[in-house]
Amino acid sequence: MEKIKAVALISGGLDSMLAAEAVKRLGIEVHGVNFYTGFGSVDQRMRIDGEKSAASNKKLESSVRKTAIELEIPVETLDVSAEFLEMVTNPKHGYGSNVNPCIDCKILMLREAHKYMIKIGAKFLLTGEVVGQRPMSQHRNTMRHIEKEAGVAGIVLRPLSAGLLEATLAETEGYVKREDLFTISGRGRNPQLKLVGEFGIKNYPRPGNDCCFLIDQSYAVRFFDLMKHRQIKSVSMEDVVRLRLGRHFRIKETHKIIIGRNEAENDLLEKYAGEGMALIKAAVEIGPVGLIEGVFDENDTAVAASIIAGYGKGKLLPVVEFNVSAGGSEKTISVKPVDPQLYSQFIIQHHSGHGPK
Ligand code: SF4
Q1: 304 and 209 belong to one structural domain
Q2: How many A from CA of 264 to the centre of ligand 1?
Q3: Domains contained in the chain, number
Q4: Backbone dihedral region of 264: left (phi > 0), alpha (psi from -120 to 50 degrees) or beta?
């Protein structure tokens, strides 16, 4: 007899891994889907650090790939980055605690997963969501609303919390039994770690792995600063990358200065220097690369170069030469390095003082 198929939304976190394994153990053929949003923490770290993590110097391997290998299930990655980018600037259901549009995001993912479910002839969807774990998107009423709007009402099984929720199609059709599912709720992680042991899972992501960097507070502050200063309220994928790189200073309302913090960031700032920006790079001494974005004049460029010089190897020299490239032309300027601390009040960061270093 042909096995019943289900589609599991795999985030790369522990909960979705456990949910998929729980259903697989009941004899269901589980197919995973994962979404490329352009905002995934690992994807972005790979972009910044290359194939090596600067912190651990270990090869970064996608946690989704690890889940697929550990559970021995196929996982298809669906690219939703274009829709996602649009959604981030204007989410219908607003943001969560930072710039994370979790409700819109879940609607989008469920909708796409549903299409995939139909395509491969699967009977239901399953997620690793746990009731009450996240403030906004994992409350029962919100879950119902999300399902309705995604057109998947009644077909999403949440194996980790199913014992606390209304029966869905997987149960009513007899594909799974309630007593084989779980009653996990809240933010605690011990029940999940217990399940890891029961299931004999060896390689698993540590609990609390964030699924995307939009929940990062420092990122949110930079993002909202950019939106506030943009006439047209939209961002590009290049903006998304730049917002993750370097230190950001807003000395004047008209423009922003970004200064790389390491070699990888310097390379990326060069690569992602957009139209209308000036790229500022030391002519001789190796040091940080800077960008100015917005409306700026020669004086603003010189101030930016002085701060950049203050972070570089030539910070004790009387003057440092910089090449400034903008609008297809290049010129050399000489500036006196300044102590960047003098400009620390202009760093775009959140108020607790734990902003980007
Ligand atoms: S944290 Fe990011 S990826 Fe996760 S649900 Fe929210 S918006 Fe989506």
Answers
A1: no
A2: 26
A3: 2
A4: alpha
